[in-house]
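Board work, copied verbatim: Relaxase/mobilization nuclease domain-containing protein
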Amino acid sequence: MAITKIWPVKDNLSRVYRYISNEEKTTEEISDGLNEVLTYTTQGYKTNEKEYITGINCSPASAVKQMIHTKKSYGKDDGVLAFHAVQSFKPDELTPELCHEIGVKLAGLMWGDRFEVVVSTHLDKHHLHNHFVVNSVSFMDGKKFDNNRNDYIRFRNLSDDLCNGYNLSVVKSNGKGMHHSE
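↓ predict structure ↓
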């Protein structure tokens, strides 16, 4: 049973990300939001000391710099900096390795041909879950990811298809928690 969510990362994230471990790394205004969300999603105690962190089209260690470079290359370093998505699973339904494998596959299917993505699997809750930090600007053509209704439905459907393929439970929609446009 995977539950999916996607939301934009904007300049000021202080109210959302209270548990940031290293604020001193923020050196540019544009990197503030990216650095905060990447620092939050890749914290060692949540990811088995960073064992479950994978970069798609980027290195996790330099993802902020790479994403900023992409934005500046296309002159799109304002507005939404990135998207933060989550895929949460039913407690005790899968291993950390399988959770991360599914997350990496989902990110590759959803964004892998055009966007830089960092996938991190968190083990700090009763339920395993994947975080995805997605650059809002494509390194291929400079177009922005919209996160519109169709994008969200595609994300959810890809997640459901992967869950079915691994014989995991799939959430039946009751209308609650759906994308704001549904």
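Confidence is low (pLDDT under 50) at residues 12-30, 178-182.
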